[in-house]
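Please decode residue identities from the backbone states below.
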């Protein structure tokens, strides 16, 4: 069974991500949904995509053994 949260790291100071993920793990979260409202970061110019921010977030989630649901 999944127990998850929505997470919008693009709206917070990126220095908080490690402590945020630690708290999620402590709460028993095992899946995190990201990306729904961040298209402006992924396609700043029409037809030119940059997923580097979320590549970093997904890597951190993987390091914390959290599954990802990318919206």
């Amino acid at each position: 069974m999944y127990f998850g949260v929505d997470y919008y790291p693009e709206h917070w100071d990126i220095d908080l991500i490690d402590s945020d993920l630690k708290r999620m793990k402590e709460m028993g979260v095992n899946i995190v949904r990201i990306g729904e409202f961040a298209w402006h970061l992924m396609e700043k110019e029409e037809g030119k995509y940059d997923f580097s921010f979320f590549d970093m977030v997904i890597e951190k989630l993987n390091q914390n053994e959290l599954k990802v649901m990318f919206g």
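Observation: The two ends are 20 Å apart (CA to CA).
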